[in-house]
Structures are given as C-alpha cells and as structure tokens.
Predict the 3D structure of the following.
Amino acid sequence: MDILSWVKHPGPNPMNPTVDTVLTFLLFGWMIGLCYLMYMRDIAELKEFAMYFIATSFAIPVIKSLSRRLGALLITKENAKKPRNLRKFGDQAWQLGIHITTTAIEYVIFLRHPVNLLVTHKGEGGVWEPVDQKANSDPLLNTLYMLQIAVWSYTALSHRFHEARHKDYFIMYLHHIVTIALVGISYTNGAMRVGLVVMFLHDSSDIVGDLLKMFNYLGLDEKSGLYITEMFFIGNLISWAYTRLYQFPLAVIYEMTFNDVMPHFRLQENPASMMSLSVCHVMLVVLLFMNAWWFFLFLRIGYRIIFSSEDPHAAGREEYEGDSSNSEDEENDVSQKKDKKM
C-alpha cells in the first residue's frame, strides 16, 4: 500500500485546525504509550498488536472490494446512478465485518466466563472483578484486546488521514481516541471483565447500525417497496437505547460511581493504576454522552422523515454526512483526471 496516496488529508481539518491538531497529538500519544507498555510487559504482546494492525490494513481493501461487487447486485437502479452509494456501502461493510467478528469472540468468552451485570464488584463474576492477565484470564480475552487495540488504532488513523469528513468528524475522532484509551487502560490494569462488557454492548449494537447504513446506500427502503431500511432504523433505535443508554450506564458507570470499585483495586497498591482508573471513569462518562448525542441525531433524522415527509437519504445526508458527499465526489474526479493524464 502506497502511504502517500493513502493519505488524503495531510493537514488538519479546516473547520477547527486547533482541535484537530490536539486530537491528533492525543491519538499518537495513546498509541505510542500503549506500544511502550506492551513492550515493557511482554514483547510478544507488541508483536501480536503489530500483526493485527498490518492484517487490518490489508483486509480492509479486500473486504471493501468484495462488498462493492455484492452491492452492485443488490442496489436499486435509482441509487446505482450515484457511484458514491456503492463506495460507501463497501466502506461500511468492513465495519460490519469487524463488529460481527469481535461480537462473536466476545460472546464465546461470555459463554466460558459468565458475567452477571446485576451484581456489584463484591459479587463473584461481577463486572468490576479484576482479571490477572497472566494467571487467570482466557487467552482468547487477551487476543480480543490486542485485536481491538489494533483495529481501533488503524480506524482512528484512517478517520484522520484517509476517509471523507462528515459533520460528526470531531466527535467520531474523539470517540476513536476514547475507545483506544479505555481498551488500553482496562487491559493494563486488569479490568478486562468490565472492558469485555463495554466492548460487547457497543460492538453488538453497531451491527444493527452498520446494516441500517448499508441498506440505505442500496436504496432498499419505501421507494423499493421493501421497507428494509425503515425496519432497521427502528431496530437501531431500540438496540442503541437498550445497550448504550441503559445497560452501559447501569452495569458499568453506575457501579463505578455509586458502589465504589476503587478499594477493590487498591489491593494492588499501585498509584499509577488508581490514576488510570480515575481517567477511565471520566472517559466512560464521555462515551455515554457521545452515545446520547448520536441517539439524538437518529431521532432528528426520524423526525424529519416522519413529519417533513423528507427523503430518508436526504435527511441522513443533511444530518450526518453534511458536505462530505460533494467533497468526496470532487476528490474522486480530481484523482480520475490525474490517472487519465498519467
């Protein structure tokens, strides 16, 4: 892969260059810090992370290419008139692939080591019960963490330097950084049980959202007579509200805030770990607010469709994508002209 051609946005986002620069420094800071911790703990962990990172960079273009071929067989004639629909279908397909993969791995781990979402950290199998990576954890759990850190690191870099910039560019960028930080903190501090719960709640709900976007790009909605997009829109609202706005704050944040999980970790007598868990607490709350913000965005789209009789594609594009579609088409036109000249 040619890195120079892959990088479409070398400079910061002109909408707010300062914020973009700060977030980029945070991203590289977290990535470098995690790589250093992996190296100090066990160089095998760093090698596994590097392997998954490289594998992700090669898997993504393959999945996108195959998905676009599949989408070409399913897309409606109306949506096929706009090439960006198939392009975005392929872009979303690799997200769906990773979310299905990680959700399946997380479900297998849950079957092996059940987690009771209703008990406090004092109960056996509780969410906040620490896990000793070297002695007691399932090897599959360690593999899941290395895979998640690698995938989210690549995703964040792709979001910053490669992908088209949507209206929620900054909040999505912050989301990627917070996710990398949370996964890294929970892994290095033995809080892998709660990390598993957080990952499962978010990855599983993302599957519905991915399918919603993909069916929307194919045009399988009211106009096609299938109403698949509308059904997944409702399903996405339900799954998002239940997993991210109910289970996540109740099983994770409430336990940490009101049941005081900190003494359980003070047994390690590690001030650095305690500070990391405090940072983790703040980031979990930030993640909750981002979940609420996206849910409000979904409601806005639904409101415009129902009460304004607006086309679903137009409503979604206006609320979520903004001017990215036009700018993306312009970029592709420029690249195509360059290819012809060469």
User: Anything to note?
Assistant: Residues 118-123, 330-342 have pLDDT under 50 and may be disordered. Residues 76 and 219 are 6 Å apart (CA to CA). The chain is about 80% helix and 0% strand. The two ends are 19 Å apart (CA to CA).
